[in-house]
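Lecture notes, unit on protein representations.

Consider one protein chain, 386 amino acids long.
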Amino acid sequence: MTLRPLTLIGTTFSMVTGVALGVLTYHHLQEDGVGHGARIDEVLRHVSANYVEDVSERQLMIDAISGMLSGLDPHTNLLNRHAYERLRHDTAGHFVGIGIELGLVNGYFTVIAPIDGSPASAAGIRSGDRLLEVDNTSLKGQRLNQAVRRMRGAAGSTVHLKVKRGDNPAFDVSLQRAHIESESVTSRWLRPGIAYVRIAQFRSLTGEHFSTTLQALRMQGDIQGLVLDLRDNPGGLLQTSVSVADALLADGLIVYTEGRLPSSHVKYRASGNDLIDGAPIVVLINGGSASASEVVAGALRDHGRATIVGTRSYGKGSVQSVIPLSDGHALKLTSAYYYTPLGASIHEQGIEPDVTMSDVSDTALLDTALEVLFVKDNHEATEPTS
């Protein structure tokens, strides 16, 4: 089937602004006959005439629309031209920043995951870290888009963060913004026959790169087992998560979405092209594995193709449609929830691993993954063939 332009964004990492949609909404409210337009017009007149400082109606309308969208979920935003362009560059893997995916967790601005190869990753920022201040200004009472905007800036400029990690005292860290062009797919052999592939984020070409990577590994030797590392992968494009799962499934449903409108009810199925011919898989996840990562992990587990190892994933199971507007702005709107093939909703629940690890070091996780693959391989080798 043809994939529609739906995106899964691990967290909101964009600005909320724009006039076009606000004006359209305003006129619609005036025309719907329920009095909302008249009420807005009345408030605008009073503010313009009596507020202590001069405020343009344009800015008031922007703020009104921002307020309207902020009453929805935190992943719904109106993007101005610059924010929309940044989002497009982000999904392509080319952007300027410090390299974190940020979300609101229990009222705190929380790092969902640092991006591989970014200034944040190099400085030791971790999934679960809470941001308290940006450039010595408290984030208390700020909206998510305001916090993100404070961290944006030109390449080479510096931003200062105050970070709280668990129950430890808050600490300060200075990061230099940089051009980030990280590879979304990397690979190596853990030992003969056992391949390791890491996906850092689901970008526009990740599905294609994943398939190419598996094919290149197969040219080097037989893949008898695969460790798929999705730790600290905050998500990305739904289409690419479907492509990655499709490359590892022989058939069946990968994921389905449901929302209020009939058009949001979509099923994505495997095309029947398992590139590793049924070899056992271990998927590594943690609290920074979100949205598209959870689509892949959920699909592979529901089909019995993978054992999940690590810690519980983030739990972001909503789908955002990015809708371009005629004036160059865009609306990023939550339009559906996604479900694993067996009907499980991951939203605000996450995926519980089959093997939960207290020691989350690379050595411990990879050793456990190899043990699981060895057991699965021996078990499958002794299965009756009748």
